Amino acid sequence: MNRHHWWRDAVIYQVYVRSFLDSTGDGIGDLAGVRAGLPYLRKLGVDGIWLSPFYPSPQHDHGYDVADYRDVDPVYGDLDEFDRLVASAHRLGIRVLLDIVPNHCSSEHPWFREALAAAPGSPERARFHFADGRGPDGGEPPNNWHAMFGGPAWTRVTEADGRPGQWYLHMFTPEQPDWNWRNPEVAGEFDRVLRFWLDRGVDGFRIDVAAGLFKHPGLPDSPDPEADARTRDSVNPLAWNQPEVHDVWRHWRAVCEEYTARDGRERLLVGEVSVPSAREHAKYVRPDELHQAFFFDLLGAPWDADAFRKVISEAMQDIAGTGSTVTWVLNNHDQVRTVTRYGEPAEGSGLGAARARAAALLMLALPGAAYIYQGEELGLPEVVDLPDDVLTDPIFHRTGSRARIRDGCRVPLPWSGQASPFGFTSGDEGAKPWLPQPDYFAEYATHRALADTRSSWHLYRDGLQLRSALHQLGEGTLRWLDTQPGVLAFARDDLVCAVNFGTAPVPAPVPGTPLLASGPCPPGELPGSTAAWWIDGS
């Protein structure tokens, strides 16, 4: 593969900084902790890391409410520590992606504070979506949109004279006002942000809410105002996926190409793109726009061979057809962990783990790039019984419901030992992680996983090694094979990946081999191949 296009089949590891490793003893992960964990990630075999937001923030949404896009929150370190992290990662051959949040900022961002202090119709307010309310006294929101995290998408402000005034738009929480990307000042500010971090050596950006930014210019009522809140997704067609957003990604791609031209080191743009179909998704990865966009349909597919084949086929047809490669993902910091998501309690606790292992190897066998969320390589389950008084997710605090809250997948990682904090924090023995770790995390600690060759960690490491060693994997195409019901099989040149989705065990193509296998396939079983990658999710 051309090294210049490293991203086309790269495997990137998502580091949720707050929960990765704490170097200071305050119970919160930090950049120095990430740097200390780099040898672990190098041993695992990933090509790069994506860092969750570490910018100065009041932490109403744990960093996705950014108060300053060009600095480091003191809880995570400082710019010098960030520079050391990038340098250390590059020495180990690990690329570094930052999470950038262009759809909204913090209500404590200087520009928003200026907007609150300014008058209606001022240039300061024009950087955001301020509007007069409806009704005789302006007491009703400007439209009927609801925020994704619950409640109305508008908050009314008190003007300088003390009277109730205009309303501002926030598609997530009131502490996260949406930028007005129809204002050129906003685009100019983000140009400066991109260049600030590119000048510090980053290898690219993961773009939060990449189908957002622009709203319908008239801000009309939605025919289904609660769609975003109901689905917890960007489905309001008046608030998301507006055509003007593609001009932004063309410009950002040009900025990245400018830096690549200087030193030959290609910078990556990967978008969090939630759109109705693979065909719409493909528009974001046209040759002059984003390099990659997460394909969430695989993550959302039920555990069913036909469902997996359908979403994979659509991605290969619509996205790979643009000249990009599909960017596969099974989990992230917003989703229930795969072990729990795939599990069926009536079938026993081991079922979800078997399916999660199978899904991981399936993803690594697919053409294109892949992203792994921290802790998935350990087989961590979702922590589903956190007490109400420790929950931090704004969804819980805005809705009063625990449904689809995200704290359970963000519990700090276990590294060693038999009791919390499991080596996560370097503080005193009694130091408490910012979210409590359950006792059973001892079974998943990294020191135990590395010592046990049957662990999920070794499954991931072996899968990554095979992916690197076998030229047939990574970028390319696939060919579907006919199999018995409940088994999904495809060929990658002379290799076969076969996945058992059924409830009854199916004999592996290579008798007596472990989960990963290579060698001749039995005649009539999986024809047309000389090697097999067999995955049993039953």
From TrEMBL:
Listed GO MF terms: hydrolase activity
One Pfam short name: DUF3459
The Glycosyl hydrolase family 13 catalytic domain, residue ranges: 14-410
Organism whose genome encodes this protein: Streptomyces labedae
InterPro entries attached to this UniProt entry: DUF3459, GH, GH13_cat_dom, O16G_dom_2
Protein name (Swiss-Prot/TrEMBL): Glycoside hydrolase family 13 protein
Family: Belongs to the glycosyl hydrolase 13 family.
Gene3D superfamilies per UniProt: Glycosidases, Oligo-1,6-glucosidase, Domain 2
CDD domains in alphabetical order: AmyAc_OligoGlu_TS (cd11332)
PANTHER family: ALPHA-AMYLASE FAMILY MEMBER, NEUTRAL AND BASIC AMINO ACID TRANSPORT PROTEIN RBAT
Lineage: Bacteria, Bacillati, Actinomycetota, Actinomycetes, Kitasatosporales
Keywords linked to the UniProt accession: Hydrolase
